Amino acid sequence: MRELTNELPKPMLKVHGKPILEHIIEGIKSAGVHDIFIVTGFKAEVIENYFGNGEKWKLRIAYGRQVVQDGTGKAPELAKEFIGASPFFLSYGDILVKPETYQQMVHRYNENYFSGVITVTGSEDVTKGGLVFFDDKFCLKRLVEKPSPAQIAELKSSGWLKPGDIAWYNAGIYIFRPSLFEYTTKLQKSPRGEYELTDAVSALVDGHHPLAGMKIDGRWVDVRDPEVLAKLEEQQS
Question: Which of 33, 109, 137, 151 has the most other CB atoms within 10 Å of its CB?
């Protein structure tokens, strides 16, 4: 985000007059959730001062600071005590979707006994992000994070990627049971030196925890750079 985040953490950049994070929180609230835990890092006090205890939104909001920025895999553990035995939403702080997406995720979660839900978007371009593969019931079989050209070639040759098939991409919004923490605690650092949430998700699948897939209909925006932010501002909310 270049100079836009000199003073603001990225989730506090505004879209249609509201911080990205406020859009996310209001969407999650619309699905019936009233307890929110925000993991903060850079400029944590900006987020904490804006949302406070959540009273303005009729929510209970708590916080945990990720002092060492060592990846998405360890960040959820800050909320472990807050979550207790409840299933929970987990979202990155820069993903915008329609509010009804969160309600659809709850519906999908309740369709069977699942350990969670992983949302995806579809594309014919196989180089855009984390590739997700499903069985015939649209439950997770495999996740390949940011595949290299060599990995893509291997996925094609082994039949995981077939010509003309839609490539499913991890959309960065989940529901999990607390069983996720059994796997985040065992994480090893990835080749890029971080603990990856997607490694814990893969370990859940390997441990025979069923994870339901759900395609996001309509808007899905990863607010990754100033150009995306500017384009959002031009559109209607």
Answer: 109
